[in-house]
Design a protein that fits this description.
Fumarylacetoacetate hydrolase, domain 2; five-stranded mixed beta sheet; mainly beta; twelve-stranded mixed beta sheet; 2 domains
Length: 262
């Protein structure tokens, strides 16, 4: 099942729904609780899709593809390398990624994202699947120059608009061997399978939940393949994941802000 957050009019608040072919129906409640599906009657191309979840926290995994670690001249970690992006970085499909004036090297990172559906702490790998609601597409947009200069990754990963998500949550995906691609203005940049992950999803959930409680709606970004590259003003970046769909976002320089004096 494909779960969405959508609105029918410009002023409407996002609501939960589901997709049946080219039609949309509402849900009686959030999918983390008991809900019923209303009949799908509204055309999908007539509604606006929002980010499919409003996460309480976004846990990201660094260097989870060996080829990406190699292109960064970095070692593959012995344990999952985790960091956080703020919920304020989330945007939806079709929204605009803003290039901040503080950075001269913003890059794309197409990733498979896990949406947590059930609270969990110290989750065993064998039980991880029961804590997953589904999967969506993410772009872990990164200010690479700031990542290098800061050491800590909070600023480089945390700008507003630096976590596009969408277009929906797919609840029936098998993530064991799923193709991920990322292109910019139609030029292929990234292509790999989830089978190339260093740490698989079950082990990521087990590791992360040994550190922090996973809550319904939390996101785990599972790492990016090799091929990350620059995003420039006026371009469009698209991440495709087999079995889910496509996430496209325009890129624009943020000209409305100046760098504060510190």
């Amino acid at each position: 099942m494909r779960l969405i957050r959508y609105s029918s009019g410009k002023a409407d608040e996002p609501k939960w729904g589901w997709v049946d072919g080219e039609k949309v129906g509402g849900l009686s409640d959030a999918p983390f609780r008991s809900f019923r599906r209303n009949a799908a009657r509204e055309p999908l191309d007539k509604v606006r899709l929002h980010a499919p979840v409003q996460p309480g926290k976004i846990i990201c995994v660094g260097r989870n593809y060996a080829a990406h670690a190699a292109e960064r001249d970095a070692e593959v970690p012995d344990l999952p390398l985790i960091f956080l992006k703020p919920p304020s970085s989330v945007i939806g499909p079709g929204d605009t990624i803003l290039l901040p004036p503080q950075s001269e090297q913003v890059e794309h990172e197409g990733e498979l994202a896990v949406v947590i559906g059930r609270i969990g702490r110290w989750v065993a790998p064998s039980e991880a699947a029961s804590h997953i609601l589904g999967y969506t597409i993410a772009n872990d947009v990164s200010a690479r120059d700031l990542q290098r200069s800061d050491g800590q990754w909070t600023r480089a990963k945390g700008f507003d608009t630096f976590c596009p998500l969408g277009p929906w949550i797919e609840t029936e995906l098998d993530p064991a061997d799923t193709l991920i691609t990322c292109s910019v203005d139609g030029q292929m940049r990234q292509m790999a399978s989830t089978r190339d992950m260093v740490f698989n999803i079950s082990h990521l959930i087990a590791f992360i939940s040994s550190v922090m409680t996973l809550q319904p709606g939390d996101l785990i970004l599972t790492g990016t393949p090799a091929g990350v590259g620059p995003l420039l003003d006026g371009e469009e970046v698209q991440v495709d994941i087999e079995g889910i769909g496509s996430l496209s976002n325009k890129v624009r320089a943020d000209e409305h802000q100046s760098v504060p004096d510190v």
